[in-house]
Design goal:
Layout: H1 16-35, H2 38-49, E1 56-64, E2 68-75, E3 80-86, H3 96-115, E4 123-127, E5 138-142, H4 149-153, H5 162-181, E6 190-192, E7 203-205, E8 207-211, E9 218-222, H6 228-238
């Protein structure tokens, strides 16, 4: 599974606004690390798996991407899981919209995994509340071994020619896109899957877009749209 490396420690060659955003992101991750208990997390994983006789430990240090704190969980029989905790997963930070986004991510991941041959992790459990032993929203999912495209794209040490490797990467992406192409939806917009009655029901909400750079950025919502032409026209007018 592709995740970023260590927590950011410095920001260079940025505007002051951009550096402030990095500092804020780092602060949120460190605040979350302070309240997450690794032993509690591994115990939750054992309970969710529901098979007696296994122990579980955290493998290495926690990792982070842009939006999630990530723990790799190693069971005693060799099975690996991943625990994802949203960066803003503190009671004073986490909003209802973020809970809906998290639920939508899990449900849409399940939908695509069940409907295609694209290799995606299996979601075992999701909790978007603070009413759990961890005291934070979290998602438990399977671990997929692999290497990031970023690591391979410029790597000349492998047994194959670099251009051939890049060609295979692009073919893999194209094959995945072909599988996704068969899904047709009546609208273009932000996908929401938060229905309590039907976990496969898809709805659409406006998309948040950003105009400008750094301290002059302005965020506003557009859509949903009925077709691609309407979306592109609006995007051009607001860019």
């Amino acid at each position: 599974m592709a995740v970023a490396g260590d927590l950011p420690t410095e920001a260079t060659s940025m505007s002051s606004s951009s550096a402030d955003e990095v500092d804020e992101d780092e602060a949120e991750f460190h605040a979350l690390l302070a309240v997450i208990s690794a032993p509690v997390l591994t115990q939750i994983a054992i309970e969710i798996r529901g098979e007696a006789g296994h122990t579980c430990t955290v493998e290495g240090d926690p990792l982070n991407g842009s939006y999630n704190l990530v723990y790799i969980l190693q069971f005693s029989d060799g099975l690996k899981w991943v625990a994802r905790i949203p960066r803003r997963g503190l009671r004073e930070k986490f909003t209802n919209d973020e809970a809906i986004n998290m639920l939508t991510q899990a449900r849409f991941l399940r939908f695509i995994r069940e409907s295609t041959r694209i290799p995606l992790p299996e979601v075992f459990h999701i909790d978007t509340t603070f009413d759990n032993k961890l005291g934070a929203p979290f998602m438990m999912m399977s671990w997929i071994e692999g290497t990031t495209v970023r690591a391979l794209w410029h790597d000349t040490s492998g047994p194959t020619l670099l251009e051939r490797r890049r060609e295979r990467i692009l073919q893999t992406v194209a094959a995945a896109m072909l599988q996704l192409e068969r899904f047709q939806f009546p609208s273009l917009g932000k996908i929401v899957m938060s229905s309590e009655q039907d976990d496969r029901k898809i709805e659409w909400e406006p998309v948040t877009v950003t105009k400008g750079l750094f301290e002059e950025q302005e965020k506003f919502e557009i859509g949903p749209f009925q077709d691609t032409r309407e979306y592109l026209r609006t995007a051009l007018q607001t860019s």
